[in-house]
Amino acid sequence: MLDPMVLSRIQFGANITFHILFPTISIALGWFLFYFKVQFNRTHDSSWNQAYQFWVKIFALTFALGVVSGITMSFQFGTNWPGYMKTIGNIAGPLLAYEVLTAFFLEATFLGVMLFGSKRVSPRVHTIATFLVAFGTTLSAFWIIVLNSWMQTPQGFEMIDGQAHATNWFAIVFNPSMPYRLAHMLTAAFITVTFLLAGISAFRQLRGSKSAANKAVLKIAITTAAILMPIQIILGDAHGLNTLQHQPAKLAAMEGIWESGSGIPAVIFAIPDQKTQSNLYEVSIPKLASFYLTHHWDGEVQGLKDFPNKIPPVAPVFFAFRIMVGMGLLMLLVSWMARWQIYKSQDIKPWMAKILVGMTFSGWIAVVAGWYVTEIGRQPYIVTGVLTTADAATTIAGGIVLSSLLMYLFLYIALIISYIGVVFYLAREGDKAPVSNTITSTSNSYAQ
Question: Concatenated DSSP letters for 259-322?
Answer without folding.
Answer: S-EESPPEEEEEEEETTTTEEEEEEEETTHHHHHHHSSTT-EE--GGG-TT----HHHHHHHHH
